[in-house]
UniProtKB/TrEMBL annotation, chains A, B:
Coiled coil: none annotated. GO terms for molecular function: DNA-binding transcription factor activity; transcription cis-regulatory region binding. PROSITE patterns: HTH_TETR_2 (PS50977). Residues 35-54 bind DNA. Keywords: DNA-binding, Transcription, Transcription regulation. Gene3D superfamilies: Homeodomain-like, Tetracycline Repressor, domain 2. This is TetR/AcrR family transcriptional regulator. Residues 14-72 form the HTH tetR-type domain.
């Protein structure tokens, strides 16, 4: 991610960020052409404020996309690891494979010469998976490594979303979780 | 992929495609700004020829990227499935994680509202994997399903390349192949 000025919550910088992000989301929802002048007008800032802060339209869209992909709540706690992982994976697949999900992933990857925005998306997933695994370990359950879940549950879902167009259903997510449970668990 | 006129090999359409692709690759290698007028000038065609055929710069870059990602030779035949898969996976990882590989993948994903270009990249990988599996089955070896290799070898490599910036080495590719061999083989 490009270095950005530190944002003081409630400061002018935070207010600019919020109003520009809101303007982008509104214009996206309206389906019109996205241009820096239109976004600036809607946000009540000058185009040069946007260029100074985000560099160009693509980086701004990537920033908005990463923000949209940030999970809003911790993963549900259903009382056991298998169900927690299944629930999280089916939700993740549904969200990421929806038309808005796909377009956010695309935006995050596009405005990203150094991989920072995409890295942030994956960091969100790692965080959610680690929450699930930590809770399960706390209940005394046997747990796989975080990377096993990332490589064999998250990666196959994202690869299919991006590279293998076709229908994807909850059963696919559950099958990947079952593969981790029945094939890829470390020995106790 | 957008519908394109069928290309008669040796016809004018094929010559235009070749000279435009060559112009893009030369300009990319020189590291200059890529614009449709510059590409047209180098290729000896008019800009409107490019717009008519490819729609816009992003779609043209995606088309060139997919062409660059097309494997030039069938996978090496080392006499057994394990070595064939290891060899192919380490080559694939090295190529795709190189700076040009990453930028082709990015281009293929960017100019791709309907997922067709990215689908073509994945179709190339499926084809290579199927060649390896078919050869092994012909030798009487026990083989995994194509989708097992796509989901648990190809997908984790591509996910790390795109979403988890960091060093990736041949050992990672070989470990994924070992996981398929020791954990994910179907019963004979």
């Amino acid at each position: 991610m490009s270095p950005r000025p530190a944002i003081r919550p409630g400061g002018r910088s935070a207010r600019v960020q919020q109003s520009v992000h809101t303007a982008v989301r509104e214009l996206q929802a309206e389906g019109g052409d996205l241009t820096v002048p239109r976004i600036a007008l809607r946000a009540g800032v000058t185009p040069s404020t946007i260029y100074r802060r985000w560099g160009d339209l693509q980086e701004l869209l990537a920033d908005v996309a990463v923000e949209r992909l940030r999970p809003e709540t911790p993963p549900a706690d259903l009382g056991n690891l298998r169900e927690d992982l299944e629930h999280w994976a089916t939700d993740f697949l549904e969200e990421m494979s929806s038309p808005p999900g796909r377009s956010y992933i695309r935006d995050a990857l596009a405005g990203d010469p150094d991989g920072g925005n995409a890295g942030q998306c994956s960091a969100y997933a790692v965080e959610q998976v680690e929450t699930i695994l930590r809770r399960a370990a706390g209940r005394g359950e046997h747990v796989p490594a975080t990377d096993t879940v990332m490589d064999h549950v998250v990666a196959p879902m994202m690869y299919r979303i991006l590279f293998r167009p076709g229908p994807l259903d909850a059963r696919y997510a559950r099958d990947l979780v079952a593969t981790v449970f029945y094939r890829l668990m470390p020995l106790p």
